[in-house]
Design goal:
Blueprint (H helix, E strand, L loop, with lengths): L2 E8 L8 E8 L5 H11 L3 E8 L2 E7 L4 E2 L3 H13 L9 E5 L2 E8 L2 E7 L4 E2 L6 H5 L5 E4 L3 E5 L3 H6 L4 H4 L6 E7 L7 E7 L4 E4 L6 H12 L3 E6 L5 E8 L2 E6 L1 E9 L4
Parallel strand pairs: 2-3, 4-6, 11-12, 13-15
Antiparallel strand pairs: 1-2, 1-18, 3-4, 4-5, 6-7, 7-8, 8-17, 9-10, 10-11, 12-13, 13-14, 15-16, 16-17
């Protein structure tokens, strides 16, 4: 028997949009090198590996280049598969034990709500190579736990950014979040996410970036609930809700394929 392996488009209601994530179910913990090799083979921004535990699932995420400590869209994809394949009853909470602590997911109709830690960022005056790498002048620059955050003056400026990825790859952070207030009706803020150091030039929809974006825009807009759009070429919608030291991220997901992996660890 092979290992269950699925590909899911997350933060979208239609195939071939949002952010694709591979989801692999393991019988027992696997060697890190093997998981990294499979993530490189899958060639999507993140591959999730799950191992069943008594009260949830151990969950790890790998990009094609390295393991990461937090990933939203692959967690959303994992929860989607748990309910779709019957590993969990549709009304049961999904619980994941990760390097970022306990993460939870619940179904709400067609939407899946993730319960993630809110993350703060602090203003910094200058990050070397950042402006040169983005080709735009920031109106605000901050540094969070994993990423730097850049606010630009408008959605039009954000959508027009053509980064120099080689320059951005020299900045010692997981990735660069670029954001602005939305001008497109129906959205409160928009963003893009670049992570060339992880082998991801532009991530289509980045759930974990919204752990920083949600408190950032919540303060500026004086809002607790907001709707965000990540303006990559694939695009994706993230509903956010601030909840004390946590942030609730909601999105939809679509399974692209399900199969069996024959190359066992």
């Amino acid at each position: 028997m092979g290992l269950p392996l699925c590909l899911v488009d997350a933060f979208t209601e239609r195939p071939f949009a949002g952010n694709p994530a591979a989801v692999c179910f393991l019988d027992e913990p696997a060697n890190v090198d093997w998981m990294q090799d499979l993530a490189r083979e899958m060639k999507v921004s993140d591959t999730a590996f799950l191992v069943k535990e008594s009260d949830g699932y151990n969950l790890r995420w790998f990009t094609p280049e390295s393991e990461v400590a937090l990933c939203g869209h692959a967690t959303l994809a994992s929860a989607h598969i748990l309910w779709e394949r019957g590993y969990l009853p549709t009304d049961a909470q999904a619980r994941f034990f990760t390097k970022s602590g306990l993460l939870m997911a619940e179904r709400n109709g067609k939407w899946i709500e993730l319960n993630f830690p809110a993350q703060s960022e602090e203003a910094v005056e200058h990050i070397p190579c950042l402006q040169e790498g983005l080709g735009v002048v920031p109106i605000y620059t901050g540094m969070g736990q994993f990423d730097c955050l850049v606010e630009v003056e408008s959605e039009a400026v954000l959508r027009g950014i053509q980064p120099d990825y080689a320059i951005l790859a020299t900045i010692p952070v997981r990735g660069v979040i670029v954001t602005s207030q939305a001008s497109t009706p129906g959205y409160d803020f928009v963003s893009r996410f670049f992570a060339p150091r992880l082998g991801i030039l532009e991530d289509p929809v980045t759930g974990s970036a919204h752990c920083v974006l949600s408190p950032f825009w919540g303060k500026r807009l004086d809002r607790v609930e907001m709707t965000a759009y990540q303006a990559s070429s694939r695009g994706g919608i993230v509903r956010v809700r601030l909840d004390g030291e946590r942030v609730r991220l909601s999105g939809q997901a679509v399974t692209i394929f399900s199969g069996e992996l024959q190359a066992h660890p």
